[in-house]
Amino acid sequence: MILSSEKGPLGASQWNPLTVYEKTRKTWSWVGHVAFSYPHNHVEEEISAKSWGIPRQTIVKLVSCFVIWLKERKEALQKINSLPPPPSTLMKCPSLEERFKDVKALRRISTISRSCDEIRAYFRREETLRYSMPERAFYYTALDGKKSAVAPLKRGSGKPTVRGREHFMLKEDRPASFTILCLVRDAASRLPGSIGTRADVCILVRDSQFLVEEIDDESQFIQAVSGGLDRLHFEDDPCVRFDKERQSWLYLHGEKQEEDFDHVGTASGRKSRRAQNASGESSY
Questions:
Q1: CA distance from start to end of the chain
Q2: If you write DSSP's letter for every residue of 142-181 in order, what string do you get?
Q3: pTM to 2 decimals?
Q4: Going by DSSP bridges, is the β-strand pair 248-251/240-243 parallel, antiparallel, or unpaired?
């Protein structure tokens, strides 16, 4: 990620990306300077400014960034490995055929049950871990027991995270990076089979520990979830899409790898209002 960034490490000058990630092939390629060509049976490390084609100061900065990245990576893996196995109740989810056997009646009803205490507690452990390292992609455990990816919330810029504006549904002591969009995205990522109705998303939203316990106005709650789905749908790299045939929402990022996410994480822009109106899409 450091080598492929359009912006060089802090203090580095004359910077150009040195690697590029090909999403279709899921491979990395070196695009930086190549000064030497060695026989296949001769391996030699070159770390001089001449061999890399970049100033020595930049190489020093790169090494420093790599050391920091490696340390953070190890710490993140230790946290992830500290999670216990998912509860067996996560595997006991109805099949898609059972859930969507009566499509016409699905527009405003749920196809899943409310989470039991065991499932909710496990999700909250994952949720705590996810927001302890928001700059990384994370993998939640969906209701069918499969892992489902969510994009990084921000990239390490060295700047402190500014808390989003207050919302009647969110607790005041929530993580600084946690917003309504986070709440809805996390819920959508846990849909079994990566598909569910708006009512299903609402059920999973209620599992969050950062949601206030009592919401007096149910219509406002539903409207907030609908608005979140619509906004996610119109991002440059949308994580959800509405399926008119099944009257349901599809989660699109579940099988992504960390490298598949853009460098800006979820801070992608939205389509213009004209483009939204032209598409005729809206939340159900």
A1: 37
A2: -TTS-EEEE--S----SSPPPPPPP-TTB-TTS-TT--HH
A3: 0.71
A4: antiparallel
pLDDT in tens for each of the 284 residues of the chain?
Answer: 555 565 555 555 556 666 776 666 666 676 665 554 555 444 444 555 565 566 777 777 777 777 776 777 777 777 778 788 888 877 778 888 888 887 666 566 899 999 999 999 999 999 999 998 888 899 999 999 999 999 998 654 444 455 666 788 999 999 999 999 999 999 999 999 999 999 999 999 999 999 998 887 889 999 999 999 999 999 999 999 999 888 899 999 999 988 788 654 454 444 444 444 444 445 55
Cβ-proximal residues to 158 (8 Å cutoff; 6+ apart), any chain? 10
The single-letter DSSP state of residue 42 is -
- CB–CB of 11/57 below 8 Å? yes
Give burial (CB, 10 Å; 0-12/13-18/19+) of 177: middle
B/e letters for 86-98, b = 16+ CB within 10 Å, e = fewer, are bbeebeebbeeee
